[in-house]
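> call design_seq(struct)
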């Protein structure tokens, strides 16, 4: 019996260990879509995140990543409390808005209110949490933020929004 061999690398996938290789592989990975919010000197800020993960149930910890060049990074860096919102498939436009650099993310078309600890909480989402940041771990040009859930509401209805192949998609049966 011979041992199985790994398939040959695709020439268009980038060099081994390159950013292009990582990006091309992760385009195949479907991820849930979240928006992370914070208050920054009285103003709401936020961004779309597809890196949200559950870390621990006890204590209730989650993680996400953010680039240190992102416009929301100063607020995420400096605030103790953040909001994490799970988007529904009906919120493609909201996901795109919070993903666009320079967009008026909290303009007239965005439903939100100040929640616990002054964190901006978005309306119409499938679920939301307010979290206390417990760590910001350096990872290249990003930070892995680990936060503990302290308040929230899982009561939204609908199906989750997914990100796959560079697009926002609906979940299919």
């Amino acid at each position: 019996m011979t041992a199985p061999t790994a398939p040959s690398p695709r020439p268009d996938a980038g060099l081994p260990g390159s950013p292009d290789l990582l990006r091309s592989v992760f385009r195949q990975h479907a991820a849930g879509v979240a928006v992370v919010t914070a208050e920054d000197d009285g103003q709401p800020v936020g961004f779309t995140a597809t890196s949200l993960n559950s870390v621990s149930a006890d204590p209730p910890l989650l993680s996400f990543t953010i680039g240190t060049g992102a416009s929301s990074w100063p607020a995420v860096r400096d605030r103790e409390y953040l909001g994490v919102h799970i988007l529904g498939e009906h919120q493609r436009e909201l996901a795109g808005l919070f993903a666009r650099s320079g967009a008026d993310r909290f303009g007239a078309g965005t439903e939100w209110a100040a929640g616990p600890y002054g964190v901006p909480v978005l309306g119409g989402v499938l679920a939301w949490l307010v979290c206390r940041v417990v760590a910001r771990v350096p990872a290249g040009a990003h930070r892995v933020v680990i936060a503990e859930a302290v308040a929230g509401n899982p009561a939204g209805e609908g199906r989750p929004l997914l990100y796959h192949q560079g697009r926002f998609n609906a979940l299919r049966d």
